[in-house]
Specification:
It holds the Pfam family Aminotran_4. InterPro entries: Aminotrans_IV, Aminotrans_IV_CS, Aminotransferase-like, B_amino_transII, BCAT-like_C, BCAT-like_N, BCAT_family. The chain has about 350 residues and is of the alpha+beta class. It is built from 8 helices and 19 strands. Strands 10, 11, 12, 13, 14, 15, 16, 17 and 18 form a 9-stranded mixed sheet that branches. Strand 6 and strand 7 form a beta hairpin. Helix 3 packs across helix 4. The protein binds 2-OXO-4-methylpentanoic acid. The site of 2-OXO-4-methylpentanoic acid has 5 residues, from loops.
């Protein structure tokens, strides 16, 4: 265990990692995986290279017109030193769907899985000890070829970099406080809210920073048409529980099809809950018994309060709700190899 607490840097210094107290931030690791493709052409041979800057044209389509997608998944180290990935083929398929929407060449599922495996194994020493966090894997598919007129890029780059991470929100799994945003919207029908394109994320920063300035953890968005149906939080999906029935906003093109969201829907069903994917009115959410968020980065995170206009509703007296707790345990036990993977979700490296 000792050698995992100290990580040697390239300049021969040793960094001591305090695995008990590190949050969700970028911690550069040793290698990244890079693969290139021309528009309509074949993907070249991917390779591992030292983690570092990419050299791209200032005219790159990703820089000028936002032609880019990203993914997020995690690798866990188990007590018996196995390395587990959670549903990586789901990320591969979501990237293919996103590439179609963003007019980019997609990457075959097998190539995606191979690249993830290479990136994780090359950075194996950065996977936190069991129970102390995970290795967050960030695949990017970006238009790196230069364009001036508005056209798809003539060249694309697929990159995977990784970073060890702990809990996403400050305070670990403590319930978070959300503010409902009713002026700005995250996505509109017919737009790109349902794909993981880079352009969906910078616009939420303004409202997120404003909310954080008021002491909230994040922002909850409403639909852009009626401004009353719950969509998602800036960084994760949302669920509510009322009378032991679980509901989450249905996917209709404006909500990110989260892999944790999908897994929780399936897992809750197998735990005996009734689960509905349907429109959720913000008023219903305020009247819920329990609310929680899901995402690769946030995992399952209870919501302690929601503030909508001048109303602040608290859930579970500030404690973690029973359903969120049960589903968090059920999910993370599978992800960390502590429970039998009856769903066939785990890929062992
Ligand atoms: C993830 O959960 O993997 C995401 O991509 C959310 C991101 C804002 C950290």
């Amino acid at each position: 265990m000792e050698e995992r607490l100290y990580v040697e840097r390239k300049n021969n210094t040793r960094e001591c990692i305090d695995w008990d107290n590190f949050g969700f931030g970028l911690r550069p690791t040793d290698f990244m995986y890079v693969m290139k493709c021309t528009l309509g052409g074949e993907w070249g041979k991917g390779k591992l290279q030292p983690f570092g800057n990419l050299e791209i044209s200032p005219a790159a389509a990703v820089l000028n017109y936002g032609q880019g997608l990203f993914e997020g998944l995690k690798a866990y180290r188990t007590e018996d030193e196995r390395i587990l990935l959670f549903r990586p083929e789901e990320n591969a398929m979501r990237l293919i769907a996103g590439a179609d929407r963003m007019s980019m060449p997609s990457l075959p599922v097998d190539s995606f899985l191979h690249a993830v495996e290479q990136a994780v194994l090359a950075n194996k020493r950065w996977i936190p000890p069991p129970g102390k966090g995970s290795l967050y894997i960030r695949p990017l598919l970006i238009g790196t070829g230069g364009v001036l007129g508005l056209n798809p890029a003539p060249e694309y780059t697929f990159v995977i970099y990784v970073s060890p991470v702990g809990c996403y929100f400050k305070g670990g799994l403590a319930p978070i406080d959300l503010e409902v945003e009713s002026f700005y919207h995250r996505a509109a029908p017919g737009g790109t809210g349902g794909v993981k394109t880079i352009g969906n994320y910078a616009p939420v920063l303004k409202t997120q920073l404003k909310a954080k300035g008021k002491g909230f953890s994040d922002v909850l968005y409403l639909d852009a048409v009626e401004n009353k149906y719950v969509e998602e939080v800036s960084s994760c999906n949302i669920f509510m529980v009322k009378d032991n029935v679980i509901s989450t906003p249905e996917l209709k093109g404006t909500i990110l099809p989260g892999i944790t969201r999908k897994s929780i829907v399936e897992l809750a069903g197998s735990c005996g809950y009734e689960v509905f994917e349907r429109p959720v009115d913000v008023e219903e959410l305020l009247a819920a018994d329990e609310v929680f968020c899901t995402g690769t980065a946030v995992v399952v995170n209870p919501v302690g309060s929601i503030t909508y206009e001048s109303r602040r509703i608290k859930y579970n007296g500030g404690e973690v709700g029973e359903v969120a707790k049960e589903l968090y345990e059920a999910l993370t036990n599978i992800q960390m190899g502590r429970a039998e993977d009856k769903m066939g979700w785990i890929v062992e490296l």
